[in-house]
Design brief:
With 361 residues, this protein is α/β, with parallel strands linked by helices. Among the domains are: 131 residues, FAD/NAD(P)-binding domain (3-Layer(bba) Sandwich), CATH 3.50.50.60; 47 residues, no CATH class. The chain is built from 10 helices and 19 strands. The strands form 4 sheets. It has an 8-stranded mixed beta sheet. The chain has a 6-stranded mixed beta sheet with strand order 8-2-1-11-18-17. A 3-stranded antiparallel beta sheet has the order 3-7-4. α1 packs parallel to α6. The longest helix has 20 residues. It is globular and about 60 Å long. Bound molecules: flavin-adenine dinucleotide.
Length: 361
């Protein structure tokens, strides 16, 4: 069985590694190297890190994250506390470089080439393969022509990496504020000696200026101190996923198929989920999507409500929950996280706050 994988971003790399167990894989990448240009913050669940750690070294893991504050930028809000190893911040460039090394060691053939045509029958630029996986990222040009692409809502995100001092290593703050992140949220990820401050916004906003503004808030609150050493970002997709990710012998994956958690835009977990569940018989590739696509679809309206809520709803919600600390164990499935919160001892307060904030808007 010969399989072509188009695109050596995260999803193409993990797909190649898993598929190499059942097929001869050729991985096409338009750039000569992987991991560039960098765009992603690299926050994943402990479970995703555990799965990846069988392919890459521990150096890829920049630090554990066990506490997530959700609220207003001035520090009014609720803290979600996870167990040990709840989440991790990864060095994304290094992750992709090491994944490529693993893929090559597994016998994957890496070809530097811009693929310009894929057909449903498995032709990749006139060469016939038994199957093709398109992992071309959010531009999804090949996938669109094949009718397998997603049509997700998109926001534009930017990260500022600050080297110096972070007040609470292991804690991330997520801020809902229309003046910093219109249509999404801002974030501060704190590690030992370093932090990443980022924000995202719908089209038309100056996301660089917004990210600088978020950094000023983080500095004013004493969360972050140091020098901006790196700036990177790109398109964040917030669902829905493609309902037809496969056409005959070709499937799209990763951002091309809209495999992103709609609430956060996180793409690493859903891509890994699909890749690691490719059945031993490649003919059944399509089955791998049957669990994750409906889940991402169900999460999409929750994301729309959260990202689109007016500022007064955020203020009401987080003021009502200010100072609360809630325990959670689920990071990858946000509907489950919500269910965990609703079952918590403070469920009544949470529901009351949600109702007050969102009804009537
Ligand atoms: C600011 C920001 C922060 C984010 N933070 C997180 C996070 O914390 N956690 C998380 O899980 N996700 C996060 N994401 C989302 C995550 O980065 C993406 O979902 C993920 O990187 C998508 O991977 P991919 O392989 O599908 O696409 P890409 O990484 O875009 O890779 C596509 C590859 O295909 C190649 N390619 C494209 N077309 C062709 C062609 N025709 N021929 C050959 N090669 C081609 C490209 O060169 C590229 O290398 C973030 C995204 C952004 C923008």
């Amino acid at each position: 069985m010969r399989v072509a994988v188009v695109g050596a971003g995260f999803s193409g790399l993990v797909s190649s590694i898993y598929l190499s167990r059942v097929a001869n894989v050729t991985l096409f990448e338009e750039h000569g190297e992987v991991g560039v240009p960098e765009h992603c913050t690299g926050v994943v669940s402990g479970a995703v890190w555990e799965a990846l750690s069988s392919f890459v070294s521990s150096e890829v893991n920049e630090g554990a994250l066990e506490e997530f504050f959700l609220g207003l930028p001035e520090g009014v809000g609720v803290t979600l506390k996870g167990p040990k190893g709840f989440a991790a911040k990864l060095d994304r460039r290094r992750l992709e470089e090491e994944l490529l090394e693993t893929a090559l060691a597994e016998g994957v053939k890496f070809v530097k080439k811009l693929v310009i045509r894929v057909t449903p029958k498995g032709y990749v630029d006139n060469e016939k393969y038994d199957r093709a996986v398109i992992a071309e990222g959010w531009r999804a040009e090949l996938s669109e022509r094949l009718g397998v692409a997603a049509k997700p809502r998109r926001v534009y995100g930017l990260n500022l990496e600050v080297v110096g001092r972070a007040a609470y290593p292991g804690r991330a703050e997520v801020w809902f504020d229309k003046s910093l992140a219109p249509g999404f949220f801002s974030w501060v990820v704190m590690l030992d000696g370093k932090a990443v401050v980022g924000t995202a916004a719908t089209k038309g906003y100056d996301v660089r200026a917004l990210a600088r503004k978020a950094l000023e808030v983080a500095e004013r609150r004493g969360l972050v101190e140091g020098e901006v050493k790196k700036e990177y970002g790109g398109v964040i997709q917030t669902g829905p996923p493609s309902l037809t990710p496969c056409a005959s012998k070709v499937c799209a994956t990763g951002d091309a198929a809209g495999l992103n958690k709609p609430v956060t835009g996180g793409g690493l977990y859903p891509s890994l989920y699909v890749a690691s569940r490719y059945p031993s018989n490649v003919d059944n590739l399509v089955k791998a999507y049957r669990v994750i696509v409906p889940r991402l679809l169900a999460e999409t309206p929750v994301a729309r409500a959260l990202h689109g809520a007016p500022q007064r709803a955020y203020v009401k919600l987080f003021t009502a929950l200010d100072g609360e600390v809630l325990r959670v164990t689920e990071y990858d499935n946000h509907l489950k996280t919500l269910a965990e919160l609703v079952q918590s001892k403070k469920a009544f307060k949470l529901l009351k706050a949600l109702l007050k904030a969102f009804y009537p808007l």
